[in-house]
Write a structure and sequence with these properties.
Largest sheet: 6 strands, antiparallel
Radius of gyration: 22 Å
Number of helices: 3
Order of helices and strands: HHHEEEEEEEEEEEEEEEEEEEE
Distance between the termini: 58 Å
Number of strands: 20
Length: 249
Amino acid sequence: MTPDAALVAALLRDGSFRSCIERSGEEISSAYVAGDFHFRSLTLASGPRLVIAVGKDGCGWQGQAARVLIYERAQGGYRLVLSSVSLPERVAATPDGTLNLAAHETANAIVQATYVWNGARYAFSPEHSSIYCVGPQRDNERPYDLPIHFARGTSSIVLRGTAFENCGQDYSFVARAGQRVTIERLTPEPPGLRIPIFLDFRDDSIADVSGLRWSGTLRRSGRYTLNVFGTDQRGDVGLQPFTIRLTIR
């Protein structure tokens, strides 16, 4: 499909896209915009009529991925319902309201991100998303986020996984302010690869477990994230196992 004037106007409300065109010195027109994006229409089973714009050249690209902009047709124009990036061949949207995108988070990790229509826009769904760790004979899929659930009557859990350069596993758990968290590394770091452990609360870093053990009292209630991944690889190192004990009292 060729974008109409209202869709071009909607695209130009995206600051990055407009700045890119202005830097290029090109005249803004429907034909120029059509050269930077592939467009297709999609009607969801629940009724909304969407236009999906996937970058194919020039200002439709961001780094090594295509821009993905999705608009709902509204009275008098178009309303933005998603702005993201993806490998163009991995953009898949279906009438049931599911959208799948895939893009490199690092050179060795591809995030397969799933979004679901919530009645107003596409919302990221971590429980339906995954990460592919990519490398020679290492391709494997793992959950984007692995929720931690303690068995009834227990306060500790042992987490086992694998990591290599720029890839590992994210875990999440819910805790209350005032609880004490202890993180213990039960297996030593392997030769040729560091496997750091980070404890985060939303966008704030709480702890960097660089040794064998860390313990601290939480100041806020909510969902915490435990990030475990490989870094500082030296030589040809394959998937390396890790074992961690998490205790919350």
